[in-house]
Structure to design on (218 residues):
């Protein structure tokens, strides 16, 4: 079968676009794997800090995040996961935005933290960490990140990253692009900027200074 030059060019462009999407998806998967590793590596820092807190004295989320030098949303997710897996360790009060350590015996705390870490590590490896609504923090069950997700609690639709095409959830590092206001996974848009130099949505020239931390409306 003979093809005209125009038909050949169209097929080549289509093939190149498909290849580009596969490469980009692969890069996003590598970033997700790296993020899981980093999340686990931070676990020791979080638990070591909590182990130094005095029992029954509330400590502000902002203070814990400041000491750990990580985003408050990420810090809150650690605290929520600790409370969820082993509530004996302590309690995170959402309204007050404080964490209260409940254990009084240091050896008991160390044993509980160790057990929690193993459970959490297993969850991360199996990709079973619970996803939560970006706006109201309501937990989702059995969701497909590639599909449209609407929270049954606040009825808001989970925004999707224009690069990986997956929904975004509470606790993830997200940023907005100042020109068009679109939201992206931070790692994904930074990777995109370093190779493309243009916003994938508005096509304006951008750099990392064009990004702001995303703060969802409650």
């Amino acid at each position: 079968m003979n093809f005209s030059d125009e038909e050949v060019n169209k097929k080549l462009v289509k093939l190149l676009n498909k290849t580009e999407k596969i490469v980009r998806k692969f890069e996003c998967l590598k970033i997700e794997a790296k993020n899981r590793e980093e999340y686990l590596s931070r676990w020791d820092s979080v638990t070591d800090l909590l182990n130094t807190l005095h029992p029954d004295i509330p400590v502000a989320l902002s203070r814990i995040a400041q000491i750990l030098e990580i985003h408050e949303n990420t810090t809150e997710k650690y605290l929520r996961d600790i409370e969820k897996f082993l509530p004996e360790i302590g309690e995170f009060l959402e309204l007050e935005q404080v964490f209260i350590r409940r254990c009084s015996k240091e050896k008991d705390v160390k044993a509980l933290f160790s057990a929690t870490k193993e459970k959490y590590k297993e969850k991360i490896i199996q990709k079973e960490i619970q996803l939560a609504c970006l706006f109201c923090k309501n937990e989702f069950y059995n969701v497909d990140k590639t599909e449209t997700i609407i929270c049954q609690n606040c009825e808001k639709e989970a925004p999707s990253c224009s690069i990986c095409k997956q929904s975004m959830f509470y606790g993830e590092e997200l940023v907005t692009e100042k020109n068009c206001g679109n939201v992206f996974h931070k790692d994904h848009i930074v990777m995109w900027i370093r190779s493309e130099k243009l916003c994938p949505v508005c096509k304006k020239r951008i750099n990392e200074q064009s990004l702001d931390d995303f703060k969802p409306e409650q």
User: Anything to note?
Assistant: The chain is about 45% helix and 10% strand.
